[in-house]
## 1
Amino acid sequence: MTTLTPPLMPEGASAPARADAGLRPRPRRLRRTAALRRMLRETTLDPSQFIYPLFVAEGRGVREPIAPMPGQYQLSTDALPAQAAELRALGVPAVLLFGLPSSKDAEGSQAYAGDGVVQRAVATLKDADPDLVVITDVCLCEYTDHGHCGLIGPAGDVLNDPSVELIARTALSHAQAGADIVAPSDMMDGRVGAIRALLDEEGFAETPVLAYAAKFASAFYGPFREAADSAPAFGDRRSYQMDPANAREAMREIDLDIEEGADLVMVKPALAYLDLIRAARDRTDLPVVAYNVSGEYAMIKAAAANGWLDERAVTLETLTGIRRAGADLIISYHAKEVARWLREP
Ligand code: PBG
């Protein structure tokens, strides 16, 4: 017979029951009252830890609900100042912008157009609230007519280096529009280094790069692709996004992005990858960001709409888990609701 824990008292101890009780570990002592539990909480949630994603559409007066993401909308730029004001009132410091261009082509030229939808959105938001941290998602998939994150070669494969060139141009155009942080999400090799070099060359040495470092080819992006109209027209993203089975490779991707100059690193998605958030946290002193992605949001919303889960409790528990795993910041569609919930007693 094996004993996992040593007996609380030595075998045959004849101490009176009182002393015996004194030696027995009693962790529940520290959970007795709400005040004790609050004081001893190891992991906290605060609105300041959140980044709120926004989908920006062309046109005016657009407020198009995103069906698989209840509570989220495609918004035109005129709606953005109100968003900035709302986030400021809630204490959420940052947004992550995704663009929905009115026209797409093989090269994703609207991604790096000076007057593109994201570039105008950045300017609008910085104008409305210079203190709002505006982060831009840097990718081609919302802008290419084939929906891939890079250029397609003659053999139908996604080309690396020519794509990196356009991705760096996209990042530069966002910085020029006033973005506070650029966040490449394409997973091409070498794009962080290329972005860093181009930003430095063009006078944006102070613009940080948030690298989607360990980004997996995940089915949890389904609702997002509907929101951003960015599903690939053929094939899938598995030749550039990572295999969900690979943890060591994720560390390699993180190391490479840091070597290339990343200022913050991201693990995405969050829930099925909590081990990698922890591993990233233990590996680097850079800020670690986790993306609580669209499918993770949709699952909770769907269960809550059916009355199967308590949305508030489950969301706060989930986000606490992501923080406990080691994330400093969380990109979440729940950010506004969380900020409201955290305010309530
Ligand atoms: C763009 C991008 C995607 C997401 C963020 N940036 C989609 C994808 O890679 O297919 C997904 C975010 C989410 O699901 O919330 N490459």
## 2
Amino acid sequence: MSSIDQREYFAAKYQTIADLPGIGEATATKLSEIGYKTVQSLATASVRELVAAGLGEETADKAIKAARKSIAIEYITAQELVDIRKSLKMVTTGCNTLDRLLGGGLETRSITEFYGEFGSGKSQLCQQLAVSVQLPEEYGGLDAGALFIDTEHTFRPERVTQMALYLGLEPKDVLKKIIFAEAYSSEHQMILLENADGVIKENNIKVIIIDSMTGHFRSEYMGRELLAPRQQKLNQHMHKLIKLARVFNAAAVVTNQVSSTPDAYFSREPVPIGGHIMGHISHTRIYLRKGRNNLRIAKVVASPFLPEGETPLRITARGIEGDELDS
Ligand code: ADP
Ligand code: MG
């Protein structure tokens, strides 16, 4: 058995937080109330986060240490990293040209950001992903569910139904595997994600979608003097998302609008909101724009592993389509 197998990298030794040595029922309940429902989520938490949520410092420290021991976060060799990366999965976007651009689809354990102006197709793509992740693996899906946090009231079950039918999936089953919540404010959005780990585990969620990531933050934190607190909150929110994606081997997808501030005026291309926070934590950034003949153009703007490039796609009644119609 390799050390990776022994380590059971992503499987915690203890099933629930209450099983951890030194953690009593009361602490476990309290942790659950503040959003730490699994051993994995606790292992990647910081003492500061737990204290801020109302736990005593000593208890927080003890809880985190026990969780970390149980899931064995430790140094590994780069060769072992290769093995871990073997468990990375790709999720099809349901669109062949976009999949090609992305080197196969969206990668799990990573955040992919789609940004672009209003109507560029971000929400359509998100809904498509909530369906395509449900496809069997031989068709590029992960036979899994989707978590969908909608902040702009644009998710439509009717649209999902259309997309499901085209992919030969039973709409009712597809809708049941999309766990949906509407976020009414940035704070609500953060709370939803902080409480998501139980729901992700229970529903075998493999794609976590936040559409839009930045909308509430942008409208609530206006003006220069609120820029710093906004960035701090966004940073915390994005970090929570990447932790969830890593722990549950899920793909994370966020959308972002483009800025029309003077900063953008000097740039040749529109600038996504959220500045360097969004850029640093999103692993792959894709810019969506409208092209001629009602096409959309997706462009890789930043990626640790993809070459820059762009590709056309089309939003049709059937979903997001590539060049299958042309060939
Ligand atoms: P945003 O980037 O603002 O989230 P959307 O993803 O909501 O943009 O894209 C909206 C666009 O998607 C619409 O302008 C329309 O062109 C297209 N669209 C939406 N539904 C359909 C459909 N059923 N058939 C064809 N095109 C559609
Ligand atoms: Mg939208």
